[in-house]
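Dear colleagues,

As part of the handover before I leave the project, I'm documenting each prediction I ran so the next person doesn't have to rerun anything. This entry is a single chain, and its sequence is reproduced below.
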Amino acid sequence: MSRPGPDVPGVLPFGPAFIMVAGTRWWASDEFVGLLVDLEVSDGRSAGALCFASKGSGVVLDTEHPWCVDGQERLRAYMYECGVNAMVAQDAMDDLVDTLRELLAEVRVPDDLAP
């Protein structure tokens, strides 16, 4: 089951560049309930998604989920396209995740999707 998620600001800083939030959506299956944050780079290409799994009534980054692994790989590749080294790319990833954690701190899993 998928449904639209909460509003998140459309443009976020990402190292020497920026990343756009294309949207958010709740995803629920028998094994997983979480919030996907779909991302795009400045030219409109998909940068994958970061996946925040439900924990209690809120959400936390699920770095093991395949969608999140793919999203992290695409984001790192974009940083390398911007000409940065691995350390700067990792710092940009950490900052982006921290920003999203802050933005999603008050987000609650809808009652009908809660595990």
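Helices lie at 66-81, 86-103. The chain has two helices and six strands.

All the best with the project,
I.
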